[in-house]
Design brief:
Strand order of the largest sheet: 1-2-4-3
Number of strands: 4
Mean pLDDT: 94
Length: 215
């Protein structure tokens, strides 16, 4: 096991928003998802599922659904007198939230409700926490899987970009379009493809800024 090789992968990953027209093979996608499914999860609940879209027309339709929802929200903001914010929403956030549009593959990352013998036999009978907490538990584990997915993609020479914009703007529209059942939450979407260019490394907070030792 080589720590420095792993560190290079982690440090080298970038959020890629421009892709070549080259398709991503199903074999590569399956390899990446195989790594995703080995993420840790609460009591091995494995609260993740993935919808992989390689049909470019459907990806464009999801882009349009996102733009439609964005313009609807901008119109509501304008009616409230927030014209400046409405323009920023469409001009600044819009392109950022739809940067998946030229990707050859789009992965919809889903979180399923947390289920386990502990929940069934202990947590539910004593009403340990509100029902909404179990949805949050599913999202937490799902996020761990998406990180595995993106690192595996980078190790294969592919680029990814995780985005929550389409979920924030158009979750119900996308849910209906893809026929996603109500109990599953959309965590994020991930654009996947061969990078057209490599974004520069962005600054990170120093370890000392984000760490507190208690000794």
């Amino acid at each position: 096991m080589d720590f420095h090789a792993l560190k290079d992968i982690i440090h080298g990953r970038r959020s890629v928003r421009k892709f070549t027209e080259q398709d991503v093979s199903i074999e590569d996608i399956n390899d990446i998802l195989d790594c995703a499914r080995y993420a840790p999860s609460d009591t091995n609940s494995q609260t993740w599922e993935f919808i992989v879209i390689t049909n470019k027309e459907k990806i464009k339709e999801i882009e349009q659904l996102t733009w439609d929802a964005l313009h609807e929200k901008a119109a509501v903001a304008t009616e409230k007198g927030l014209e400046k914010e409405a323009k920023l929403l469409t001009r600044s956030f819009g392109p950022y939230a739809t940067a998946f549009s030229n990707a050859p593959a789009l992965i919809i990352c889903l979180a399923t409700p947390y289920q386990s013998k502990f929940r069934e036999k202990i947590f539910e009978p004593i009403q340990l926490v509100p029902e909404t907490v179990w949805e949050e538990e599913g999202i937490k584990s799902s996020c761990l899987a998406t990180q595995n997915l993106m690192l595996a993609a980078y190790a294969k020479g592919l680029g990814t970009c995780p985005m929550t914009g389409p979920v924030l703007l158009a979750s119900e529209k996308i849910r209906s379009f893809l026929n996603i059942s109500d109990e599953k939450q959309m965590n994020m979407v991930i654009a996947l493809g061969h990078p057209q260019d490599v974004p520069k490394k962005l600054p990170r907070k120093e370890v000392s800024e984000i760490t507190t030792y208690i000794q």
